[in-house]
Structures are given as C-alpha cells and as structure tokens.
Amino acid sequence: MAFGALDCDVEAVCPHDHPVSRTGAVSAIHRFRPLRPVQSIARAIERSRPDLLIPCDDLATICLHRLHDRAARAGTSAGDATCALLVRSLGSASAFDVVGARSSLMTLAQRHGVRVPLTSVTATVADLNAWLREQGVPTVLKADATCGGRGVRIAETPVEAAAAWQALNAPPSAARAIKRFVVNRDGNYILPCVQRTYGVVNTQRFIRGQDANVTVACWQGKVLASVSAAVLRTTEPHGPASVVELIANSEMTTAVEKIVSALGLSGLVGFDFIIEDHSGFAYLIELTPRATQMAHLPLDNGRDLPRALLEALTGTAKRDRPAATTKHVIALFPQEWLRDSDSAFLTSGFHDVPWSEASLLRTATEETITHRLWTAMMARPNAPRPSTPRKKARFEQLL
User: Fold this and answer.
1) What pTM, to 2 d.p., does this model score?
2) What are the φ and ψ backbone dihedral angles of 219, each rounded to 5 degrees?
C-alpha cells in the first residue's frame, strides 16, 4: 500500500487467498507454491520483470538468496539478469551468508566497532556445558533461520538451557512441518523433517534491558532514511512488537550505518537492539534483511522509507506523503488489538489501522485468529477450544 501510494505498480508473490490479495494496492498476484518456493518466485520475476524486489517475510528472503545461487550457477543471460536484479534489490551477494548466520553477524559487527553481546555457536551438548561454566545463567539460546522471537529461549538454569538447546537443535517435528504447510503455506520445514536436519544453535550472553529496533531504507551500503523505536509491548515473550515508542539513539544509528556499509546492503532492513538497563549501552542482537513492521509508515523529518528507496532507485524526487501521525507511541495492527482488545495504547497512541481497506482488515484479522487457535490447540491438545467472540465483536465495532 505504501509503494502504491507512491505511484508504483505493485505485484505480489503469495499463497492462494493470502490477505495481501484483499488490498487494492496490488495489481497482480503470482501464486506461491509451498513445495516449489524458489521456482514460484523465479516464475513471477520472469512474468513481471520488476525493477525492485521487496521481501516481506523471512521465507521470502531465504528463497531470494537461494534463487541468486541458482541463477549464478546457471551461467546464462537470464541468470545474469536475475542476479543483477537481486543485487540491486538486496545488496551485495557476499552478505547473504552473513545475514543468515547470527554468529557471523556478531563477529562482523564486533570487527567494525559495534557493541554486541558475546555470542558462540554451540554445536554439541559439550559446547553448551562449556559455555555455561564460563558465562553462567541466565543465558540466551537462538536458532539460525528463525524469526519473530520463535527461535529464541532465555534459560534461567542449566537444566532449562539444556532443554532449550535440545528443542532448538532438533529437526522439525512432523506436526510442526504439517502446521507450517497447512496454516502458513510454508513447505520449508518438510525436507528438514524428512531428512532429519538439525538446527544451528547459538548461545548469547544475556543483556538485561529494553528491546529496541531500527528500520532503514538503504542503497548500496548507504542508509537513506531510518526509524528508531523502543518496544513497549510484544505479542508474546521475546516475540514481535505490538506497541513501540519512537526514539532517537545515536549509538543505534551509528551501529546500523556501520553494518549497512560493511555488508553493502540495499532495500528495507531491520535491526534489533537491547538497551542495557544500568549503562544505557545499545547492543546489536539481530539483523532482519527484509521489510519489517514499521517500514511502511510515513513520518516527519524525512522518515518515509519507501519514498527514500524509490528516489535512490529512480534518481528522481517523489512527492511527499503526509506524516501518518505526530504521536510517538504507535500500536501496531492487528498485533496489539489481538494481544489486548482493551489496551490503553489503542486510544492513547496512534493505532496503525489501514482503515481504507475494510476487506483486508477483516481477512487479516480472521486469519491471525485462526493461527492463534491452531497454535493454542497444538500446544495444549487436551485444552478446551479457545473462544474469540468478544474480540470479533470489538473488531466489528472498529469497522
């Protein structure tokens, strides 16, 4: 919708009946096939011949990296054109492996003077025990190729750390693979499940503090525009933000500029930080190489990321979009509404609801509720089915 408002022709690759198909901003939909993800995107590129690719979730980013590898090996003119498009959209191909591996990113960041928590790959239980003897608890365990806090565990005791390592290291279960395929239309877990592929687990020193993030538009290693925010609420412990507060933090801004430059990044990218309680130091903990939750919002002082990116791509100035809000607290939709339909932030802050797209609102909310119900039933198979009439009623009031 943000790119459409800037007079772009927007097409999407998505599963059948995805909520994005309910918005008037998309002129064409290309079918995403969960069992042939890379081929789906390659075929869409061939048909639409886009000027820019914007990955909007982690699976899309992984598929684009794999597509680059495949196109580079092809050695054809079409393959060369695809590689050029991917580099133009995402940045230097040499960065692809780094952004997908947490320990590699931490090493690179430290080399460029960015403050990071001590991080190490723990390939075995012996590695974990050695880490715990040296660093103690609490400690953070993170699995590569996960997102939204779903591959993160904070262990308060050695027993919790061992259990968390086993869970993150284990291949995807059949139930998880089926759920991802049926509910999320993501077939990426099927092959690891069948082949019993084990995860890469990192351990990280625990930093007590406030979550924060920076979302940027960048081009060939240069930051064009950025939005910094502190996280006030999350949808679940260590999960995605549902309420944020806009802030200014020079240490985070400088760190992001160094990483973007070092990796030669382009596109829309997110960075996660922890602002330590007792020192105020900002520690980089994550890089998300895709559009994140705040990327679409036009804000004052030139903080319009899609506009800045288009100006770099085309070399021409784009018309200003009015700022979405002057408030500093932003409640993200539908995350905060689903977390607490009576949340004070829905009225005291700016509630980021796309009011002009009633069909999208209804579809996205109902699908999110379905995901929540599935997750609850899978986690507690003997529990009674959760009910949502109250939330649905309040949503009807919103519309």
Assistant:
1) 0.86
2) -145, 115
